[in-house]
């Protein structure tokens, strides 16, 4: 449902010591890994980074969409859209580092003066010519927003409209608006989401690796699990397994009645024989996310658990079957939701309490969304999670999640769906 990387989980729970208790010290951990995890191998050689030519094509596509949507420029700060167009990450805190892409002409950057060398180092491996690209610097007592306005003016953009990327902090967008009062500020989402929501073959290849890595990690951990483990011990095994395949990843683990909470609980939990276990999250491959959920039982499942699992499984397959070119995003949600309602777990959001899925790529959740009312038609190369669930409060929940991509002939899942609640990997 959402990516929670291992360092964040450990910081949140304060249970880093549990990793040592389960796996031993750094020197001893390799020897103490269960056989199924020890057997995992690095997948790094399957990774092919996005090429400079593809980054340049993205900038060109963005300029086309700016013209189509009546925008003279878009402004990016840190985040996934910056990585999508420029090929690098940036963390700048409260200080403005702006990337400005005009509809016509060359991009420019505004950065604190003491960060210029770091920026140019990043630009060296970007689609922009590090030696020629314009970098405007500002000192701590100067107004950085005036530099954005001046850079736009130098490209003939004084009036008209500029799009602000959706994650840009208000303090930045407000500062730019005040520095360029004749320029109308709007949303850059038609451009950024317009580019990012359909994936290229190279992006799909990276997402395939990410999803396959997560599936292999989950299977290895399932084979290593036993009753009486805590959820944090299982999470630690997942961390160790990701270390073997070579990617940054992690997972939340819930069991028993806490599986009825879609995003789980912080309460300490111990896995019991016959108790449902829900594992959710994924990993990052060159910034691209996977997001997989498996719900299963160690040992024998009850008849009710099997029934709920089978309904959710059927709903997941119905969602995938409904995902075809030109179909509205909302209708994919409707197809899965109908199965759950017809199975006796309706109406609406009573038991299936969230949307069917979200777009996925450089962010775990991104445009567009498989949710009621979304009329956005499916397009070739779109990627989504498919994650129906039934949550019976106070008892248990089942969610099954796999990611898929849209093709000319329908939708294809990146991974094999879960076949049963007792044998989730066949």
- Report low-confidence residues grouped into runs of 5 or more: 3-30
The percentage of residues in β strands lies in 15-25%
Compute the CA-based radius of gyration: 23 Å
Mean pLDDT: 93
| Quaternary structure state of the chains depicted | single chain
Continuous helix count: 14
Give the strand tally. 19
Account of the 3D structure:
Helix content is 38%, strand content 19%. It has 14 helices and 19 strands. The protein has helices spanning 6-13, 16-23, 26-32, 35-38, 52-68, 80-86, 116-123, 144-153, 170-179, 189-196, 201-224, 231-245, 303-322, 329-342; strands at residues 73-76, 98-102, 108-112, 134-138, 160-164, 183-187, 248-249, 252-255, 276-281, 283-285, 288-289, 292-297, 357-359, 366-370, 383-386, 389-392, 396-399, 402-407, 410-413. It has a 6-stranded mixed β-sheet. Helix 2 (16-23) packs across helix 12 and helix 8 (144-153) crosses helix 9. The longest helix has 24 residues, at 201-224.
Write a brief structural summary:
By secondary structure, this protein is of the alpha+beta class. Helices cover 38% and strands 19% of the residues.
Secondary-structure blueprint of this entry?
Elements: H1 6-13, H2 16-23, H3 26-32, H4 35-38, H5 52-68, E1 73-76, H6 80-86, E2 98-102, E3 108-112, H7 116-123, E4 134-138, H8 144-153, E5 160-164, H9 170-179, E6 183-187, H10 189-196, H11 201-224, H12 231-245, E7 248-249, E8 252-255, E9 276-281, E10 283-285, E11 288-289, E12 292-297, H13 303-322, H14 329-342, E13 357-359, E14 366-370, E15 383-386, E16 389-392, E17 396-399, E18 402-407, E19 410-413
């Amino acid at each position: 449902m959402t990516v929670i990387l291992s360092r964040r989980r450990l910081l949140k729970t304060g249970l880093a010591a549990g990793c040592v208790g389960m796996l031993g010290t750094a020197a001893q951990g390799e020897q103490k890994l269960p056989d199924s995890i020890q057997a995992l191998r690095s997948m790094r050689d399957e990774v092919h980074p996005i090429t400079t030519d593809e980054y340049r094509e993205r900038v060109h596509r963005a300029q086309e969409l700016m013209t189509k949507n009546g925008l003279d420029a878009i402004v990016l700060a840190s985040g996934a859209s910056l990585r999508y167009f420029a090929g690098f990450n940036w963390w700048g805190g409260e200080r403005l580092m702006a990337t400005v892409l005009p509809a016509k002409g060359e991009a420019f950057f505004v950065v604190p003066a003491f960060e210029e060398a770091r920026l140019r180092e990043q630009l060296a491996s970007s689609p922009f010519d590090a030696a020629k690209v314009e970098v405007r610097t500002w000192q701590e007592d100067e107004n950085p927003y005036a530099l954005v306005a001046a850079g736009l003016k130098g490209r003939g953009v004084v009036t008209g409209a500029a799009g602000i990327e959706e994650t840009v902090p208000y303090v930045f967008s407000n500062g730019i608006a005040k520095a360029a009062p004749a320029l109308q500020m709007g949303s850059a989402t038609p451009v950024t989401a317009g580019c990012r929501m359909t994936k290229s073959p190279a992006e799909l290849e990276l997402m395939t690796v990410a999803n396959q890595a997560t599936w292999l990690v989950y299977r290895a951990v399932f084979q290593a699990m036993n009753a009486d483990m805590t959820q944090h011990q299982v999470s630690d095994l997942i961390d160790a397994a990701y270390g073997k395949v070579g990617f940054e990843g992690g997972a939340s683990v819930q069991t028993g009645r806490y599986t009825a909470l879609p995003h789980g609980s912080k309460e300490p939990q111990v896995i019991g024989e016959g108790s449902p276990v829900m594992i959710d999250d994924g990993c990052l491959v060159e910034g691209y996310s996977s997001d997989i959920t498996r719900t299963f039982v160690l040992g024998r499942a009850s008849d009710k658990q099997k029934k709920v699992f089978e309904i959710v499984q059927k709903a997941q397959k119905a969602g995938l079957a409904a995902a075809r070119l030109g179909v509205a995003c909302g209708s994919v949600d409707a197809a899965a939701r109908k199965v759950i309602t017809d199975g006796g777990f309706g109406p609406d959001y009573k038991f299936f309490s969230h949307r069917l899925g979200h777009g996925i790529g450089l962010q775990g959740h991104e445009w567009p969304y498989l949710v009621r009312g979304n009329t956005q038609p499916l397009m070739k190369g779109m990627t989504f999670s498919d994650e129906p669930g039934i949550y019976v409060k106070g008892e248990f929940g089942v969610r099954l999640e796999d990611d898929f991509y849209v093709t000319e002939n329908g939708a294809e899942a990146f991974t094999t769906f879960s076949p049963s609640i007792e044998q989730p990997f066949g």
